[in-house]
# Entry
Amino acid sequence: MLLITDLEKTYPGPNGGFTAVRGMSFAVQDGEMFTIVGPSGAGKTTLLRCIAGLSAPTAGTISIDGVPIDGPPREFAVVFQDYARSLMPWMSVARNVELPLVKHGSDARSRRRAVEQALAEVGLADAAHKKPFQLSGGMQQRVAIARAIAYRPKVLIMDEPFASVDAQTRADLEDLLLKVREETGTTIVFVTHDVDESVYLSDRVAIVTRSPSRIDRIVSIPLPHPRDQIVTKSLPEFAELRAQVFGRIREMVHDAALADA
Amino acid sequence: MVLPTLARPAPRVPRRRPAPGRPRGGAVLLPLLALAVAVALQEALTRTGVLPGSYFPPASQTAAALLVELGGATFWQTLGSTVSTWLLALLIAVPLGTAVGTVLGLVRPVEAFLRPVVEFLRPIPSVALIPLVVLTIGTSARSALFLAVFASFWQVLVPAIAGVRSAHPIALDTARSYSFTLWQRLRWVQLAAMLPHLATATRLATSTSLILVVTAEIIIGIPGLGHEITMSRSVGNAARMYAYIVVSGVAGIVVNAVVKRLERALFVSHGIGAQA
Ligand SMILES: Nc1ncnc2c1ncn2[C@@H]1O[C@H](COP(=O)(O)OP(=O)(O)OP(=O)(O)O)[C@@H](O)[C@H]1O
Ligand SMILES: [Mg+2]
# Structure
């Protein structure tokens, strides 16, 4: 279980700095698909970076199975929002996916198989020998996703991973993610701006407030599995849950606008 | 004697784009034409006595002297000693500057500690060290080697420090989140980010070390192209002197072109500025 307790993150700066996250608490169960939605600039990336052990919280604790996270845990993988920068431009797509798997004593053949399989799953089998700069933004993002999948993490952290792919690819990648979760029991913490996507993918959707960000509410998504892009999305329950999440976000934006006025 | 390359500050920003494609057609013919016109003009001016022939022998005489030299055994020996000192200087200065730059770039306290020393030593024109070098090392090729290494080391060091620090934060985060070892991070993220900086630095160091090797040969009298230039002057053989000056210039052009090509190949294979 991933446990976040009273998390606070303040970036240093004038006037006491800027507090992006304050009093954030929630728990993610093993194998759960947990999605975070909220306004831009709320502090979602900040939160994910703290969970990933890349950024130290100012206050509060984060633990995985009772062990506090004080650096990047080996069994976590991150798909960054700034995916293009996370690829090594001077290495082929296949090599990029392979890098995290290169460990002392690891076997090159099984590595190559894992790379091929992950690239095929994201639809990039033909691009294995290309360099990242020869790919479109959406294809680069899929390389970063393939790299994370090939790594077989226990916890997969994804920051708006489908933001720059077309609708069809996006649907395919959503289903791929559900399949990976189903097959491997990976815990997934996922940030998105797309309410439909959050409801379609998740077991629970957390709505976070504007910064200093905290959990506004968590909506359970008891939609049946396996999910299907057409069947699931045409269920009346889907429309209801979608309206619930969407309505709350709109209320928050509205309240914020009133507060600012 | 002015050494323009030494005065130039080390590059801070790597060239993101490769040199424009190889010039073709008019772009090749025009410079050649300009060269031919300049040579013909020089020939005409010296033949007609407008320029004193004893200082400026006609181009044809320089060419004849060059042909004579090309046939002799000393020429190749001379060229060989200059080129070998020069290459050896690069082979020492580039890896040394890269290694030291990597350490200084990564370990900030060490860099802060050594910065005053670096800032004191770096601006010293290497030629100013010639008396010291003659006293301590002597008048062998090792003196030229030391001067060339000293000068080009700084030209590699400074970009190497900047380069190792130029790795993008997200690339570094990726390395951390996938638990790369220190060596993996160095090799895959930081050394790779250094490459464009190093390529430019190497090209500069190439010219710098040639200048210093030839200068040391002229001033200290170390066997090599520079020495032949002064020797020819002192025996009044202006044509031979120009022949060796031409050879030094051509050597510079050839090696610069080679390094530039390597640099471009590197940029293309690394996808840096290769979108065009
Ligand atoms: N390194 C930093 N230093 C100072 N302030 C920062 C830093 N990183 C983020 N912030 C600030 O913290 C706030 C939250 O940023 P964050 O990137 O976490 O938002 P986000 O919810 O991911 O936004 P988006 O949905 O647009 O990606 C923003 O106001 C941002 O300006
Ligand atoms: Mg973000």
Chain A touches chain B at residues 49, 52-54, 71-72, 74, 76-78, 80, 82, 85-86, 88-91, 99-100, 102, 131-134, 151 (CB under 8 Å). Residues A 44-45, 81, 159 surround magnesium ion (ligand 2) (CB under 6 Å). The mean pLDDT of chain A is 91. Chain A has two domains: 1-75+157-164+180-261, 82-152.
